[in-house]
Amino acid sequence: LEHESEHVVWFHISNTGQPNKFSLKCEATGDPERFMWFKNGKSFVVDGHRVIWQRAGQSGSITFLHPQVDDQGYYQCSVSNIYGVAMSHIFEVKTGVLNYFDRRPVKDVIVEEGQPLTLECNKPYGVPSPTIFWLYRDLKKSYAMDTIHREHITIDGDGNLQFSFVKSSDSDEYRIYQCAATSPVLHDEYRAGDEFRLLVSPAERTYICDANGLVRHEMHVEILNAPQWVDGPPADLNVAEESNAELHCKVFGDPQPIVRWFINGQPITDFSENSRRLLSSNGEILKIVNLNHDVDTAVYQCNASNPLGYIFANAFINVYAHAPRFTTEEDEIVPTILGQDVDLDCSVEAAPKPEVKWMDNKEREIKDSRPRFHILSNHTLRISAVTAKDAGLYFCHVNNKYGLNRAKRKLEVYKATQFLVELKPAKAIIDANSKFNLFCEAKADDRLEIEYWWYRDQILLNNASDSAYRIDIPNKLEIVKPRGRHSGIYTCVSKTKVDTLKSKMQLIVKDVPESPKLLSIDCNERRALVRWAAAYDNHEPITKYTVEYETAFHKNVWIPALTEEQTDQKTFEAVINLSPWVNYTFRVIASNKRGDGTPGYLKATCQTPPSYPYTNPKNVSAAGTEKDNLVIYWEPMSKEECNGERFRYLIRYRLDEPGTSWEEFEVEDPLQDHVVIRDQPTFRKYVVQVQAVNAIGRSLMTPEMYIGYSGQDIPVAAPENVKVTEVINSTSIVLEWDHVDPDSVRGHFYGYKILCWLVNDAGKRVTDKPKVTLAPPTERTAVLKDLQPMSTYQTAVLAYNSMHDGPTSSWIYITTPEGTPSAVRNLHAKALGANTILTSWDAPETARGRLRGYYIAFKGTTEQEKEEETWVPYPRSFYLYETAKPATRYEISIWAETGGGEGEKAYKIVNTWDVQDPAKPEMKITLSDSNSAEVIWLPPSKGMPGTMFYVNYSLIGSNKWEITDTVNVPQKQVIIRNLQPNADYSVVLVAKDGDRFTESEAQFFHTVNRTILIPDMTVVKKKELERGTNADRDEERTFMEYQYGTGCTDIGS
């Protein structure tokens, strides 16, 4: 380190508003990379606002622009680079004070030549105590100063100026002696203090010459002075007639000078009329009273003389005189508002002073009669609390001996303007781009016209160029798509020729931040310091600043370099690392929760000099694409990483075997990303390097070594002894084989592939592609999963590398066993009576074997109920459970069975009925031929249907009823046979549940003659219906769906 500050650094707090900055120095030789400061042992932040770097990035010296008491403390500077850290000594920073001198005029000191003299300096208070020095100052040249260097003049310990004896040369009419104070707190500045001027008179005394007492002679020396001005010669005067004037002719000399006055060169004593001319102060002051233009306008001379000489000066007195003339308009209309005060002006010039009177329109004089009428000293007529009666003409009469004049003032009195509608609300907060309207309305005196003017923060908006503002009617302001810059205080000004009204409101537009102001960009070879001022947040706190850069290589491509999230400062700075041989442009973007603001720019670029490449290409790899080549790959480096001209890549490679040497060559295309090296042995291990090179030289970083292999070939060996060692289940088996020699793979041994084709009973493959299972090279078994049960597969095994499959093993055939079926489909369950439940289902979607039958379980949901299980053979698909308990909730489960075992269960929940009579049934009758009819039971849509039915029928006209056999559900039809042709029958269907039964309404039908057969005739409640032809298999389903639909609840499948 070099050029450090003193051990104690003083500063003082300014009370004048002027900055009293001070600096702490910290300079370093070598190649410093980073400067840091510590205060009282803790890290100290150079905020870029109160404390700034003098040369950011190049020097550690800092300046305190606005020192505060809190800046006192112990400071230390640290500078570092890759080789180490250096620390400065510790600076103690203290606050001091130095008051100003008391202001005094220049003090004339009369002293006799040869006498000693002390000039005292009343030094101001200061901590530390100030240092006093003296200097000369030349009154003729205000900037001319010099320090005092004379043998007979010294400064004593108290700061007083000591003359051992005074010389005549110490005195000069324009020389001032001034004391001054300095202090460490002022940093090369000083405070000026008391001023003295010496008037040295020659030594007047008696001198004795004594020659050893033998001869004695006395001599008296008397010093005389010619006349001199004390305050300078008399000055010219320009005065009005009948006023007074004074001329001053102050002198000194020895003997005392005699002063004589002249008028136009003639002694004043020669004038007979001198009663108005008065002399005083020994004739040094001439006073003329009641000046007369014709008499007193002249050149006056002052002559001061004594035996040693004289001084003479001219002074011109101009006495002006004229008639009254107005300095404002003579005829003026003065508008005002009821109740206000109004001034009627009568500004007039006249010499001598005029007589002024105010008259009304009837020529009556207006006297000063306060508080209503008051005539001011400048002749203005003030009327207080104006009324409508005060309107009219007023005249100002003026005259003196040279003439008279008159001014006319017409007073017009109006009613005050008032707002009918003011701006509302007082404060509005809106989002950017949200349209906002402002409206105001005023009422004025009928004789007045109103103009409306719109302002934002004192900026006039009428006819503004900002397209966001629109004024289609004078008293309405529209803000179309407002942005943050449109926030402010808006004022509607209603203006007439006599008064102005203002209505204000505050509009806050929440928007993205404004552009930050870039203050400076300082660059060196390796880094840039970007400084910026805080952006205006547009009423939404700024959450971050982003520093971005673009390079000459990629115009309009901005890359984020740094994000600053500490946003509560006034100024910011960011250090950005740079690459050599690049032109950088920077910008800063402020962001808040509403988005990113417009970037802030500075028209300055950073151009860095070329250097060695800092890095080498990344993602280097090597692999062959053919059996006799080696391809080396890398990721091309960006232009910003080239660091100089003639950028290229140095490629180095060798076999990773003893006794081999490096081969190398250059690739001159910076965008190239690979190179092919031909005529290499198959699948050999290589070591490769890729290094960056430019016109300066090779990269500073040693390139890493990467391992790669030349190209691969087709494996030559097939696995042997392929066989099944275990059947896990119907879909999984274990296959085993013998390993192949790894050298036979001729490449990266990735492992084994097991190929598996599904074949049909004829042994032909039924899929285009095989099912492939992979095994690592260390394994000799594999589990083949997800096979189909009861199926045959053709299987083989091969070895493979990363590019080629080898030959397959001998094919073997595998047959999988039966599996367990999936759940049954479309399970339905319905209670038909108090003790009966009918279930039906469809076969499983996936049988995974040969279906044998179905298990059915019924369990009441109370704890006391035991589960009842039964089995029905395939293909039956319904079951009637007849031992249920009335009014009981049952859980029903059904599952299929194959040779592989029992399958998944499907569930239903059903409630049995209370013990009750079946609901009234309905029926449909279909005539089959002349002596038979089919009766179909139609269970009721509501109520308990019952579990069985039978039919009563009778030939009409007879009293004999026949009864059919009882039919159990799910069967729902019965055939009535042996009927008489061409006869009428009555039919009643009876539904039963246990011992309880319910009859349907009677229906009638007529059988046909044997010779007449009308096919497909049906009778249902004496209406014809079409006869169905469902097969027996669907009988129970038709019954269930017709009666109950599919509304049962699934609880599992």
UniProtKB/TrEMBL annotation:
One Gene Ontology biological process: cell-cell adhesion
Domain called Ig-like: residue spans: 17-88, 111-201, 227-318, 324-412, 417-502
Residue ranges of every copy of the Fibronectin type-III domain listed in the record: 512-611, 613-713, 718-819, 823-918, 919-1010
Keyword Methyltransferase applies: no
InterPro entries listed in its UniProt record: FN3_dom (IPR003961), FN3_sf (IPR036116), Ig-like_dom (IPR007110), Ig-like_dom_sf (IPR036179), Ig-like_fold (IPR013783), Ig_I-set (IPR013098), Ig_sub (IPR003599), Ig_sub2 (IPR003598)
Entry's Gene Ontology cellular component terms: membrane
Regions that span the bilayer: none
Domain of life: Eukaryota
Keywords in alphabetical order: Disulfide bond, Immunoglobulin domain, Repeat
Any single Pfam family the record assigns to this protein: I-set
Protein name: Neuroglian
Gene responsible for this protein: Nrg
